[in-house]
């Protein structure tokens, strides 16, 4: 169990080459008049104590003025390396969200954090029928104590974003609880191709706005490796 008073950093993960998106920075595209990266940051700010952007682009530090930006400590090692970098840089629990998820719910993120603080677990991942893994590892809460297991997986060459799960206690938030915040396919919808972006834009509207009605914490301040 994490100390309920433990700090939690909201981490925006902007790694990957975005090859299917022509190499363009997906999170800088707009949905409903707001950049996706701003939508993710807004949702995370509702329920975390600070923000961190993990990104390798040379101009990444200009994307979110005032937010600390760091590059992967293991470039080219996929999203798991981004999780390791976030844990190393913050030394706090983290709520991590891929930067191309425009409809992620602040309320759901708050529940992930609250569950991690109240259960005997090291990671909390929402279930999703739209993920081939059945869970969403890039919209999840990880305790700082996951660091050793993450680093060990990378050291042995296992770059799967769930490659360390056997070494930690993972709690899966049931899909019926996730669905209380919206359609999981929409909540976790992400941009891999221009067609994905067009579809997300077409499904936009008032329901897309992040909210924290159900959040417990409020702020005081192909592995999706292509994210």
Q: Can you put this structure into words, describing what you see?
A:
The longest helix has 13 residues, at about 105-120. The protein has helices spanning about 35-45, 80-90, 105-120, 145-155, 175-180, 185, 195-200, and strands at about 10-15, 30, 35, 50-55, 70, 95-100, 125, 140, 170-175. Mean pLDDT is about 85; it is low at about 205-225. The chain has one domain (about 10-200): Spore Coat Polysaccharide Biosynthesis Protein SpsA, Chain A, CATH 3.90.550.10. The strands form two sheets. The chain has a seven-stranded mixed sheet, with helices on both faces. The protein has a two-stranded antiparallel ribbon with strand order 2-3. The protein starts with 7 loop residues before the first strand and ends in a 25-residue tail after the last helix. The protein contains seven helices and nine strands, in the order βββαββαβαββαβααα. The protein is globular and about 40 Å long. Helix 2 crosses helix 4 (about 145-155). With about 230 residues, it is α/β, with parallel strands linked by helices. Helix content is about 25%, strand content about 15%.
């Amino acid at each position: 169990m994490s100390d309920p008073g433990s700090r939690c950093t909201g981490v925006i993960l902007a790694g990957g080459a975005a090859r299917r998106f022509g190499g363009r920075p997906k999170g800088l595209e707009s949905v409903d008049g707001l950049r996706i990266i701003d939508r993710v940051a807004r949702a995370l700010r509702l329920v975390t104590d600070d923000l961190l952007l993990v990104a390798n682009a040379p101009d990444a530090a200009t994307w979110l003025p005032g937010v600390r930006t760091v590059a992967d400590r293991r470039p080219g090692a996929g999203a798991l390396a981004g999780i390791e970098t976030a844990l190393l840089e913050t030394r706090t629990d983290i709520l991590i969200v891929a930067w191309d998820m425009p409809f992620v719910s602040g309320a759901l993120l708050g529940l992930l954090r609250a569950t991690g603080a109240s259960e005997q677990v090291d990671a909390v991942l929402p279930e999703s029928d739209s993920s081939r893994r059945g869970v969403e590892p890039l919209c999840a809460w990880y305790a700082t104590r996951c660091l050793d297991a993450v680093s060990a997986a990378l050291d042995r060459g296992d770059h799967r974003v769930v490659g360390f799960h056997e070494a930690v206690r993972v709690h899966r938030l049931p899909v019926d609880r996730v669905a209380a915040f919206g359609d999981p396919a929409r909540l976790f919808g992400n941009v891999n191709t221009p067609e994905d972006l067009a579809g997300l834009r077409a499904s936009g509207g008032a329901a897309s706005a992040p909210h924290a009605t159900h959040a417990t914490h409020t702020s005081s301040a192909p592995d999706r490796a292509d994210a």
